[in-house]
């Protein structure tokens, strides 16, 4: 690890700020993290948060060090809004849509990549995932098909090489969180949630969701009824709720899945669950490391004009 | 209005306690309300809450005054658990399943009606709605078909006269509440929600839900995208979210609707929205007054052995 870099790659999300030093040959020279995500910052805090994280970093050339940022720093409520590209579009155009926020000195020359939006009755937005998708296209040149990105707001994107044709967002992770915390179902999840019945509950929920994705509103209440009538333990109920939501998400997107394995980009634990549920439909999910694709995406975005 | 009664009918829900004096000819002699619903009471509070509400009530005969209670007072976390009858069942059996909680004196002889449950892979519970359904059967003898009961936890019950064949619960109202309050969608609902665009948003949401009930997880995020991309106002977003949830609920239960108009039991405002969405499917919804059916149900339950 060295602090001498050609440029700096940054993923600035809602919860975290991550930076990697990149050498002229593309090698990663350092990796640094900070909890200063968009959610904790006001607009004025960004320059200092970045300078602090990049303290001691030196460029291999004279002049400013380029810093290329993707993620929520470019949101309207972030550092400086980077207006969305509109899908369908070629993700190699990301850098052309970047914006340059002001810094108090010339040490760093910052560019923030745009997100991607979709209009015409299928209104949708992504910010951060577009860079991961470009990275996937760089790591698997020519891949054509759907990409599933599980998370708080899961994305399902249809990719043809570096071209994004269409995408959708499923509020699966957030729904699990608010149902567990704020709905009547919380009474059924009041206890240890990682017990041995969780896996069994997950399978039951996933099968229910896959079989009847149109009945999510009705099937949710079975978590409560299961604990009241059948004495289901909190771990079973948590597994059922998680499986039901993921099964419903995958069941409703099944028509997008072709013959090729589906790349899964997200946390390793979540991708493993999605791969299990995909297997029940006869499809295959291939977990892809999320850090690998974001780094590959920032490199690919930069090389589009380099 | 008089405090002299033959017996007292009580609907004891989560939020409210309501009592009606009933004369020997079935006429209502008084109507009283209290905010002392199950949610605000411990087990020990029930006798005093009831005595307080029925202060001054006198029986037409010597001895204790019968008080017949339906609703959450019979839940495990209520006054005294009245174990569920299991569907399919005849609702004329409700009184036979009632329990008698202890009172500090013999002025009132209280019976609490059971709820109805469903097992065998379609786990479900209702408590209070079964009495309304019996009331509907009394007011519309012989009605056979589905009954929709919109609310926090909407019920869809299949009735043949006084016989309940099957039922389901949709967490529609609760989902609207927690999504509005706790999810990322709250940012799109931050402002006046009863403006002129609400009706337009409701129609757009209802049509989206009816068209694709299997895609609720995906369509929810369009509330957020609609405000970010298309400048949708909070009233439009609230209408869209409400319409999307109700449209999805009705869309996923469409196969239950036959040629006959669908009785709608719930608040007048909510029943009107459901009737509008039902009309888009070519069906007709007939709002039925919820107080009328609960009173008719308590009378019918009592007369089953009288």
Automatic annotation (TrEMBL), chains A, B:
Recorded hits in InterPro entries, A to Z, give:
DGOK, DGOK_C, DGOK_N
| Designated name of the protein | 2-keto-3-deoxy-galactonokinase
* Natural source organism: Devosia yakushimensis
Which lineage is the organism of this entry classified under, starting from the top rank?
Answer: Bacteria, Pseudomonadati, Pseudomonadota, Alphaproteobacteria, Hyphomicrobiales
């Amino acid at each position: 690890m060295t602090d001498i870099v050609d440029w700096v790659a940054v993923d600035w999300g809602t919860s975290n700020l991550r930076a990697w030093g990149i050498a002229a040959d593309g090698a990663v020279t350092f990796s640094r993290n900070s909890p200063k995500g968009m959610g904790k910052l006001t607009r004025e805090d960004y320059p200092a948060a970045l300078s602090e994280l990049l303290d001691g970093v030196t460029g291999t050339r004279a002049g400013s060090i380029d810093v290329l940022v993707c993620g929520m720093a470019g949101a309207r409520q972030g550092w400086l809004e980077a207006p969305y590209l509109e899908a369908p579009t070629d993700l190699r155009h990301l850098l052309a849509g970047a914006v340059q926020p002001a810094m108090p000195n010339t040490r760093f020359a910052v560019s923030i990549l745009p997100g991607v939006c979709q209009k015409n009755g299928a209104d949708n937005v992504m910010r951060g995932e577009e860079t991961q998708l470009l990275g996937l296209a760089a790591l698997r040149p020519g891949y054509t098909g759907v990409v599933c990105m599980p998370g708080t707001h899961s994305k399902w994107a249809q990719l043809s090489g570096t071209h994004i044709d269409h995408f959708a967002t499923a509020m699966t992770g957030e729904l699990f969180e608010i149902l567990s915390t704020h709905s009547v179902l919380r009474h059924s999840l009041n206890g240890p949630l990682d017990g041995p019945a969780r896996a069994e509950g997950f399978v039951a929920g996933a099968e229910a969701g896959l079989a009847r994705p149109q009945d999510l509103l009705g099937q949710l209440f079975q978590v409560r009824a299961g604990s009241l009538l059948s004495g289901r333990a909190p771990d079973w109920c948590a597994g059922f709720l998680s499986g039901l939501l993921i099964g419903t998400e995958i069941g409703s997107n099944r028509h997008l899945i072709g013959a090729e394995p589906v790349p899964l980009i997200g946390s390793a634990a979540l991708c493993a669950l999605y791969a299990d549920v995909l297997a029940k439909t006869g499809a295959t999910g291939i977990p892809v490391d999320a850090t690998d694709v974001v780094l590959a995406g920032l490199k690919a975005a930069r090389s589009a004009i380099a």
